[in-house]
Design brief:
By secondary structure, this protein is α/β, with parallel strands linked by helices. It folds into 4 domains: 164 residues, Serine Threonine Protein Phosphatase 5, Tetratricopeptide repeat; 98 residues, no CATH class; 102 residues, Rossmann fold (3-Layer(aba) Sandwich); 124 residues, Rossmann fold, CATH 3.40.50.2300. It is built from 25 helices and 16 strands.
């Protein structure tokens, strides 16, 4: 582990040391709001606390103090957009030493949520570790562990988690940290783990020994081996309950040695194996090769998909379930990795993830073994290539079909001016007109700006509302709104329109829903209809692969990538059913009802829901188009 204190950080600290404290005084105008926000925090209502802190920042004598705490609360609630917006309004030069460290930690976490591990690490390296509180040090090591994880360096990720362990006070936090350490070392190839064992000392030595023990024993041998480990490491953090629990877990099995030497440093995850459940394995069992960018810029979404694949594999009770082999595509040459996987016995292939890699594989020649690619590239196809992606275009069409089923004909389109917003808006316009609908107007806004007055007042005039409104020709009268927005923007835009007298039904993209109802939020989205993957909407599901059952893994995944866990679940379960789909079969998956369309592209029939207050009520499957 390496702790870097840069000259720049020392200079900032020195400058701040000469500043007066920038904390609120007892008579600060925001004192009451601050006390209410702290009560919300203790109750676990992070979003509600963020809203109160944000209001406090608007009236306080030290606004940046409260904006920083609002950003922290929003980030705990999983709202990176709101957190980023508030941090952008904070002047770090006006923060005292403690808050300057908090400012750096929050910015690093936002980078990690977006998959920018190197940027996050740079921010963490710039902080003065010696000035951190114990809680901040624990947060610091946990963030560094996440960054190393995204970069594919599981050994250093485990080391950072080990450093964080003594700084954690909650038993639940300690347990989750132990699980993360073991999970990281479980993903290290045999050759690398054996190399670490030779030089390991202290607590790290015990963890490496435990990971190797589990990997090298069969289930019937494991209990005795773990008892011997407990005797050898009586003071280890994993001693006792955690180590004993490994003997009872059904998802651990003896490791089949990797057939190639592991690459070094950040690409050490190039080939990893999740073995068969049966003791000793079975050479005749199928092997699923998974091609993912497990290191580099796309490691975070790839890791979410892998979480889903691993969960589905663990839940598979088939007597001859397949082994999993993971191949890191970060270095390129996906066709070469495909051929390598086949040479090593792969009978099914999942991946790649990136569109360019899908194209490279599709144009590389004959594919003797079927491939379930995890993205869609409209420009390519191949006989043995199935393309499975969570594309917004499919969602747009099903939201539009829901509006049409409700007898709506003329849309008022509101979308952000971002590339994503315009992609969604363009597809909705094309699809809606192609199916006989009309577009009354299309308006754009700047996402996260918090000032939508000009755009929305213009919208009100377009539908004949507002003081300056004039009669609107019948053919331009909208009877519903199609809204592309995230949760933060949606909770501002919809009530603002209502305050202007625009009470049209709203049909929205699923980005409006964070994935979990938040009792601290209000009724701003009441009545909004949207379509999303069943895995997020069906709260009654209680099987081993439901979101509820995988809650711990979901919580460790950045909010922007949680749907990819469901995609990984479906990818594992679909890989052996591709011929069935090609023959007209359908599969009820976590991401929707799945069928194979033209060019072997997987089509998803989503589920639709309508907000009642702050909670989405499941309506049922989206209409068939």
């Amino acid at each position: 582990m390496r702790i870097v204190t840069r000259v720049a950080a020392l200079a900032i600290t020195a400058a701040l040391a000469g500043c007066a404290s920038l904390k609120p005084a007892a008579n600060d105008p925001a004192a009451r709001l601050s006390a209410e926000a702290q009560t919300r925090l203790r109750a676990g209502d992070f979003s509600g606390a963020g809203q109160l802190y944000e209001k406090a920042g608007g009236i306080s004598n030290v606004p940046d103090y409260f904006r920083l705490r609002a950003a922290d609360a929003y980030l705990r609630a999983g709202d990176s957009t709101a957190s980023r917006r508030l941090l952008g309004s904070v002047d770090p030069r006006r923060l005292d030493e403690d808050d300057h460290i908090l400012y750096g930690l929050l910015n690093a976490r936002i980078d990690l949520n977006a998959g920018r591990a190197r940027e996050a690490m740079s921010k963490l390296d710039g902080l003065d570790y010696s000035q951190m509180t114990l809680a901040q040090k624990g947060h610091y090591h946990t963030l560094r562990a996440s960054a190393y994880n995204q970069m594919g360096n599981m050994v250093e990720s485990a080391r950072e988690r080990i450093a964080a362990g003594p700084l954690l006070s909650s038993p639940d936090a300690v347990q989750k940290n132990n699980e993360a350490i073991f999970d990281a070392l479980s993903r290290v190839p045999d050759a690398v783990l054996n190399q670490q064992s030779e030089a390991a000392t202290g607590v790290f030595e015990g963890w490496v020994a435990l990971a190797r023990l589990v990997r090298q024993t069969t289930p019937d041998q494991r209990a005795k081996a773990i008892a011997d480990w407990n005797a050898r490491y009586p003071n280890h953090p994993a001693h006792g309950a955690f180590a004993d629990s490994l003997a009872r877990r059904s998802d651990l099995a003896a490791a089949e040695p990797a057939s190639t030497a592991a690459p070094a440093a950040e690409t050490q995850t190039a080939v990893q194996i999740t073995p068969l459940a049966e003791p000793g394995g079975s050479r005749s069992a199928p092997i699923v090769a998974v091609l993912l960018p497990l290191s580099g810029a796309y490691a975070a979404p790839a890791e979410a998909i892998r979480t889903g694949i691993d969960a589905a594999h663990d839940a598979d009770i088939a007597q001859n379930k397949p082994a999993l082999r993971f191949y890191d595509t970060q270095a390129g040459d996906v066709p070469g990795l495909y051929r390598k996987a086949l040479a090593e016995g792969a009978t099914q292939v999942i991946g790649p993830l990136l569109k360019d890699d899908v194209a490279a594989l599709a144009t590389s020649g004959e594919l003797p073994t079927p491939v379930l690619a995890l993205n869609e590239n409209p420009g390519v196809s191949a006989a043995q290539l199935f393309q499975f992606g969570l594309t917004p275009e499919q969602e747009v069409e099903q939201v539009a079909a829901s509006a049409r089923l409700d007898n709506h004909r003329t849309a008022l389109l509101i979308a952000p001016s971002s590339a994503y917003g315009q992609r969604v808006a363009n597809h909705f316009s094309d699809y809606w007109r192609r199916t006989g609908g009309r577009i009354a107007a299309a308006k754009t806004y700047v996402a996260g700006s918090n000032d939508y007055s000009t755009v929305l007042e213009d919208v009100a005039l377009l539908v004949g509302q507002g003081a300056a409104a004039t009669p609107v020709p019948y053919e331009n009268v909208a009877d519903f709104i199609f809204l592309a927005a995230d949760e933060h923007d949606g909770r501002v835009i919809k009530p603002y329109l209502q305050s202007l007298g625009v009470n049209l039904p709203v049909y929205a993209m699923s980005s409006l829903y964070s994935g979990q109802p938040d009792p601290g939020l209000g009724r701003e989205l009441d009545g909004v209809v949207f379509c999303d993957i069943p895995w997020l909407l069906d709260e009654t599901a209680g099987d081993a692969l439901s979101e509820r059952a995988l809650e711990a893994k979901v919580a460790q995944t950045p909010p922007d990538y949680r749907k990819l866990i469901a995609m990984g679940i479906d990818a594992y379960r679909l890989a052996g059913r591709l011929d069935e789909l090609r023959s007209g079969g359908r599969f009820e998956g976590a991401t929707g009802i799945l069928t194979a369309g033209e060019g072997n592209r997987i089509r998803r029939q989503l589920s639709c829901a309508q907000f009642e207050g702050n909670t989405p009520r499941l309506i049922g499957p989206a209409p068939s188009r």
